[in-house]
Design a protein that fits this description.
The complex is a heterodimer of chains A (397) and B (119).
Chain A lengths: L6 E5 L3 H12 L5 E6 L14 H4 L4 H4 L10 E5 L3 E5 L2 E4 L4 E3 L2 E4 L3 E3 L11 E3 L3 H12 L3 E5 L3 H12 L3 E5 L7 H4 L4 H9 L3 E3 L4 E7 L2 E6 L4 E4 L1 E4 L3 E3 L11 E2 L1 E4 L10 E3 L4 E5 L4 E4 L3 H16 L13 E6 L2 E7 L6 E8 L4 E8 L2 E8 L2 H10 L15
Chain B lengths: L1 E5 L7 E5 L5 E5 L5 E5 L13 E3 L2 E3 L6 E3 L5 E3 L8 E7 L2 E5 L21
Chain lengths: 397, 119
């Protein structure tokens, strides 16, 4: 270790923070480890919050991220927020402050709430365990649910609410749910919603939500008014970095990091949803909200913090995400935006089960699969890491 | 003891799922070893035979939990419970699996007979 490490403070007690704590211990760090979390809960898994956890198939105990009997020797500071970072100290809202030799920033992201009426009773966000418990209670009562959001959370919640017997309308601002993520293949998601009775309203612009006779009304810019018993806002997330203003850290869309998690301050690394690592494949900083990215980057960030051997140049695995919508498994890996061609290689989009391979100059750079886990995995293993193939670098495809 | 598949039909680096009350996954590693474990990930309903086989470990195709094929232990989360391992022997090119007598660690919402029911 290049600097004396006696205390590492991890701000953010979720997947990224816990994974980094584990990596620090695995890599031999045996000093003090303080973990700060805004929520009162020990680290838990968030992906089920929009899926099985809402229906009640999985429960709080299933979400725990720590293994039975796992003891990382962590000094937990839960239920208190980090207020600011100043002169090598983290100041918490509970009035305490913590000097550190190493700091891990893993504060995640917050749900966007920039819709008029977002704070009304019956309007839900979905980011935390408590959000999910409240929404679960609401959905169990049935009724009319309007979900706002064209991303994965929106479609997952719409699908879950429908499975729980609610009457569901999904509002998306684009031409189709998940169009931004899946391009022309997003039609598979529209088909799923249609088949399962979710009404999808495209090009919807919500001007506000207001109370109306004991329930709610969602107003659209085109004059439509949608009555609802509850509304779920799945309109994206913003990095939780407000507490770092004035810290000297370089902030953009997230804490800016190099390709090893190092920030602009010595002894400080960042990872997970709050961070924007430099991505050598894309040649720019990129904030990634994927579960697997947080896990894959934890050992790298830990090594950066401990100042061990230079990070390996072995090709990293491509980003990967999954989603469950109306019982269909959607899996995506790689950088589809780098491709200049795409072809369905197995199954068909119309039948709702396929594998599409995205290529750049003939090399597979991304893969999308719907209900084809085996074939998807076989292509995912062959995905080309762009920096490993110099001929693929360059701005034009 | 159940006959799983001919070894010659299972190239190194590949896996096959064997239907049973609790489905089994048989792996042929790059080193030539053969292992059998429960096919269903202990975290959520996914087929480990579809997973990423590397050395003596398989990574769940869905959420990247990693299991040691020899011991069934969890090497990487989100899974927390080990997967059951079964004895394997090869005779006249046929892979035979002797089922463990332990209780399987099936994920929430999955019971014997329903594992793998989801696509």
């Amino acid at each position: 270790m290049s600097r004396a490490m006696n205390r590492v403070v991890v701000v953010g007690a979720s997947l990224a923070g816990l994974a980094t704590a584990r990596s620090l211990r695995v890599q031999g760090y045996d000093g003090e480890l303080v973990m700060v979390g805004e929520e009162p809960h020990r680290p838990y898994d968030r992906p089920p919050l929009s899926k099985d956890f809402l229906t009640g198939t999985t429960d709080v105990a299933d979400l725990t991220l720590e293994s039975n009997g796992e003891d990382l020797g962590i000094d937990w500071k839960l239920g208190t927020r980090a207020d600011r970072l100043e002169n090598g100290k983290v100041y918490l809202e509970d009035g305490t402050s913590w000097a550190y030799d190493g700091l891990v920033i893993a504060t995640g992201a917050r749900a966007r709430t920039d819709v008029v009426g977002a704070r009304l009773d019956g309007v839900h966000l979905l980011r935390t365990l408590d959000d999910a418990l409240a929404l679960r209670e609401g959905l169990r009562r049935g009724g009319r649910v309007v979900v706002v959001g064209g991303g994965y959370i929106g479609s997952e919640v719409a699908s879950t609410a429908r499975a729980m017997g609610c009457e569901v309308t999904l509002l998306v601002s684009g031409t189709a749910p998940l169009h931004h993520a899946l391009g022309p293949h997003a039609v598979v998601v529209s088909d799923l919603h249609h088949r399962h009775g979710v009404e999808v309203v495209t090009r919807a612009r919500v001007t506000g939500i207001r109370p109306s006779g004991g329930s709610l009304v969602v107003d659209l810019a085109d004059g439509r008014r949608l009555p609802a018993d509850r509304v779920v806002l799945g309109t994206g997330a913003v990095p939780a970095t407000a507490w770092l203003a004035g810290s000297g850290l370089e902030l953009g869309d997230g804490v800016r990091c190099d390709a090893t998690g190092a920030t602009s301050l010595p002894g400080v690394v960042a990872l997970g949803d709050c961070s924007a690592w430099f991505d050598p494949a894309l040649g720019r900083h990129c904030r990634v909200e994927h579960w697997t990215s947080a896990v894959d980057r934890a050992p790298i960030a830990a090594r950066t913090l401990l100042g061990g051997e230079a990070p390996t140049t072995a090709p990293r695995r491509a980003p990967y995400l999954w989603s469950d919508i109306h019982g269909s498994r959607i899996q995506m890996a790689g950088h589809a935006e780098l491709a200049n061609s795409c072809a369905v290689e197995t199954g068909s989009v119309a039948e709702g089960s396929f594998v599409a391979v995205y290529r750049r100059r003939g090399h597979p750079v991304a893969v999308l699969g719907v209900d084809q886990p085996k074939h998807f995995m076989s292509v995912r293993r062959r995905l080309v890491s762009i920096p490993a193939v110099p001929s693929l670098q360059g701005a034009s495809a | 003891m159940i006959p799983a598949c001919p070894l010659s039909a299972l190239p190194r680096g590949e896996a096959v799922r064997v239907d049973a009350d609790v489905p089994i996954a048989v792996f042929h590693t790059e080193d030539g070893e053969v292992f059998a474990i429960d096919d269903t990930c202990t975290h959520q309903d996914a087929s480990l035979a579809d997973g990423w086989l590397e050395g003596c470990e398989v990574e769940c195709p869905l959420h990247a939990s990693r299991f040691n094929l020899r011991t069934g232990a969890v090497d990487a989360p989100p899974a927390k419970r080990p997967v059951r391992t079964h004895q394997v022997h090869v005779e006249d090119d046929m892979v035979y699996v002797t089922l463990s007598e332990e209780e399987p660690n099936l994920p929430p919402g999955v019971s014997a007979g329903s594992a793998g029911a989801a696509p």
